[in-house]
Amino acid sequence: MTGRDIVRVAPLASGTVQTLKVSEENAHGFTLTNGKQDVLLPFPEALGQPLKRGASVEAYLYHDSEDRMTATLREPLARFGKVARLKIADMNPRLGWFLDIGLSRHMLLPLKELPSEKSVWPLVGDEVYVRVDRDKEGRLLARSVKEADLAPYAFKAPDAWRNRWMDAWVYRSLTAGSLVVVEGGVLGFGAIGFIPSHDRPRPLRIGEKVNARVTFVREDGHVNLSMRKQKEVGRGEDADKLLAELRRRPDGAMPYSDESPADAISKRFGISKSAFKRAIGKLYKDGYIEQKGSWTHLTEKGKALASSGDEAEG
């Protein structure tokens, strides 16, 4: 046999779709072969197809619950080396998160792949972006994604997205803000976005679905987003929040003012200092508050408003 007569056969590997031939039928299903290796296609995974010896099939390979290489004719939600958004089916506090890949066995996203801060851990039902990899035994394993993993799939957001409310999924949560993939719809996979910390109500979970407004479309096609309404609407809502804090206090005063540091305002009210100042300005202009040093007090008009149970006028 000459070198040109040698036929290279792809080894059976999990997470791949391969063209295999039916070599026989047995009590458990069909034996498929690539000419060098065999793998079982269980009857349930054959989807009722009447396969005959010698027939060729396109089969997806994975490890079953007993870690045996297995074939299926089902269309998987994830393939090796690809990026996918997968729903969390279960969580084991010692191992990690189990992801639904459309098969009888879930794929593990190990604990070490996510931050140690539990407040940003995903919950069952959340959908996480992952890169499909394999462990040392060749079994499918999920890895957390980075921007470099998403870049080949993402597209540049169009300018028409500005001020549009969009659905997005968090893929990384930082102190400075949350990195997301914005739903692409008919345009495709999605666009990469960033929600600054002052434009989110709290640190967001990885895998959490959010609805946010595109505030800026960058030259590279990435977008900045905010989960807050535009200033005129948000100012009234923030003013109501501050009034609620003041009316909650017996003396109608709180130790926050224009002089308060931004981090203290964000921690207490979940808004940026600029939003706080806009709300304070509205309440002051309407005559509901006055400021004395580093404290803000309800005026008599503000106390009357609080007693009536009404909110600040929009």
TrEMBL record:
<dbReference type="InterPro" id="IPR048587">
    <property type="entry name" value="CvfB_S1_3rd"/>
</dbReference>
<dbReference type="InterPro" id="IPR014464">
    <property type="entry name" value="CvfB_fam"/>
</dbReference>
<dbReference type="InterPro" id="IPR040764">
    <property type="entry name" value="CvfB_WH"/>
</dbReference>
<feature type="domain" description="Conserved virulence factor B second S1">
    <location>
        <begin position="87"/>
        <end position="142"/>
    </location>
</feature>
<dbReference type="InterPro" id="IPR036388">
    <property type="entry name" value="WH-like_DNA-bd_sf"/>
</dbReference>
<dbReference type="InterPro" id="IPR036390">
    <property type="entry name" value="WH_DNA-bd_sf"/>
</dbReference>
<comment type="similarity">
    <text>Belongs to the CvfB family.</text>
</comment>
<dbReference type="Pfam" id="PF21543">
    <property type="entry name" value="CvfB_2nd"/>
</dbReference>
<dbReference type="InterPro" id="IPR012340">
    <property type="entry name" value="NA-bd_OB-fold"/>
</dbReference>
<dbReference type="InterPro" id="IPR048588">
    <property type="entry name" value="CvfB_S1_2nd"/>
</dbReference>
<dbReference type="Pfam" id="PF17783">
    <property type="entry name" value="WHD_CvfB"/>
</dbReference>
<feature type="domain" description="Conserved virulence factor B first S1">
    <location>
        <begin position="15"/>
        <end position="73"/>
    </location>
</feature>
<protein>
    <submittedName>
        <fullName>RNA-binding protein</fullName>
    </submittedName>
</protein>
<dbReference type="Pfam" id="PF21191">
    <property type="entry name" value="CvfB_1st"/>
</dbReference>
<dbReference type="InterPro" id="IPR039566">
    <property type="entry name" value="CvfB_S1_st"/>
</dbReference>
<feature type="domain" description="Conserved virulence factor B-like winged helix">
    <location>
        <begin position="240"/>
        <end position="298"/>
    </location>
</feature>
<feature type="domain" description="Conserved virulence factor B third S1">
    <location>
        <begin position="156"/>
        <end position="228"/>
    </location>
</feature>
<dbReference type="Pfam" id="PF13509">
    <property type="entry name" value="S1_2"/>
</dbReference>
